[in-house]
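cache lookup: miss for this entity combination. No prior model stored, computing from scratch. Input as submitted by user K.M.:
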Amino acid sequence: MKLKGYGWKTAGWMLAPTLFFLLLFTYGPALYNIVTSTAGFTRLFSSPANRNLLGVTLSYMTIVIPGAVLLGLGSALLVDGRTPARILARAVLFHPVILPTVAFAAVWLYLLNPVSSPIREILEWFMGGRRNILGSSTTALWAVALIGILKQFGLYMLYFLAGLQGIPQELKEAAWIDGAGRWKTFRHVVFPLLGPTLFFVASTALLDSLRNVDHIFVLTKGGPSDATNILLYRIFVLGFEYYDIPQAGALTTVLLFILTLTALLTMPRIERRVHYYGN
Amino acid sequence: MRAFSLKLTVLLGTALGSLVFAPAFAQTTTITFYYPVGVAGPLARFIETYVEEFEAQHPDINVETVFGGNYVENQSKIVAAQRAGTPPDVAILLSQELRTLISLDVVESMQPLIDADPEGEAMIADFFPAFLLNSTLDGEVWSIPFQRSTPVLYYNKEAFVEAGLDPDSPPTTWEELIKYAKKLTQRDAQGRVTRYGIAIPTGDRSTWLTEALVMQAGGSLYDPNSDGKVVTIDTPAMRAAMQYVYDLQHTHEVSPKGVIAWGTVPNDFAAGNVAMIYHSTGSLGFIRQNADFEFGTAFLPANKQYGVPTGGGNFYLLKGSDPAKREAVWTFTKWMTSPELLARWSIDSGYVAPRISSWELPTMKEYVAQYPQALTAREQLQYAQAELPVYALQEIKDIVSKAEQDIILGNAKIEEALAEAQRRADQVLAAFR
């Protein structure tokens, strides 16, 4: 494991600045949290609000992850190219990503208002009647999930565009010469070569879906009746509003476990570059 | 390594520099002040203006303001800062949080500062007693009322005339309100509602308006003799209150359905889409500036009796803040809660000026003559009670508000939801008994 000309000592010195901050602000607090939160675990499942939590979080993830990834992929395919219209479309689709989530959500709070929404007619047509979208338990989760998707998919589109640009033109041309249409070219050439990008985007989307909660603060505050009370929001409420640190710590440990497991499972695969076109 | 030594040099330099220059600023005391905004309108701007004026008048005191968001967010920030050893010196927090804040060991009593001031006693006597209910514990004044309120009924006078109702006699009872709301609700040819009769906010994890309804039904959401350790959710009064809210939406169909957000309701009213709303008197300023029709305010209608909780925020002294700055803190608090400033704040926002002498000031008299709507909340004080003052306040509020939302959304029957909420609240409060 010895690098040419350099020893462990050099490596240690080079890693030290990063390691110092990682230990101080990431690994240290994480370990501290795991150790101190053991007291909270016993109460974790006795609380009705927590029991509901996992289901809501999973439903939210089930909508957001495929939704954002597919929308990102679809729009990347549509706006890939150099025509001015496509460049403009890219900018428009990417725009929500650079907006602060709170501002983006506040606009939606106004748009989805059941009484004074400026797009009330459109919503009524779309929903088949007047609905208090954020104020009823059946629609609120869909609404916050869709807004979560709209906020984030532009970023995934960017990754996919980068992935698309990495696909050599000659492979697509070869497919066309062999008589493949648009769909077959996509299905058999483009999509397989996008494999690593797709995998990377999917794992990023998974992590994002667990980490992004700002819009919930603005839109529903976990309500109505806990319908949008997802894991990280609940942790915030427990820790910083109920000041129940042990229980917040226990839930943080659960979240940490899920995140770490995801990272461990996906990262090696991403590095292995699962596709057919080598350097 | 070179970069590291450079940083070190800069750090050392700054440290030495501040040592050298520190005495030059020694006469200025800097205090930190956190405040929330709980109602609609550009209220943060008013607060910043007041603080600037205070600083201009007191060159020896420098006030660093921090806008903390809404009440809940602001409190989270303060508790976090205090836990980290850097509490603000003074802050506006909900008056009803007193017991919770004491149990978290975050606040200190203001009483010693009041006692040390020769004018202190007279100052406290000048506050409306109703506003001291949530500020006092065992005869000791812990916090000084600042932005105080009661919920009032806002009603659209033009809509009243249109519906053939007398714009000068708003509904006074629940039955009357239902009758009026029916007349005020407008539908188009397809039967879709174009204007709702009434909206009572039920969102935002608040129980303020629920408490008002319970008081009107002759009950209370807590046992006043339990030292903040017993809430009473599963009661006939609460069942009546929940039935009323449910009926407005589902039986009479005069209110928007589902959970109604607190923050957007004043806008719905000002836009003319809802003819009557229950909201804080603190939203009066926003509605006055945004409604292009004549509107009135009235007491919240009675069931068995009139009744509202007081609400809003007080000045609190933070534990762990520098004792040497107490004099500056008191000067600032006293200035911000002076009759003159409270009158100004009342006119700017719509909050009730909590000092009796504010109402004697010429500016206030002129304002009230022009906008008699501002008098309602003050007159309603005779029916006001303390607002839910229990331990673990936000958790209890969430439990009550979830029960209410379950009822409104049809997820649970009233009896079931309230029994369950009572059980959960008892469990939470058991830790404090």
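stored under new cache key. The mean pLDDT of chain A is 85.
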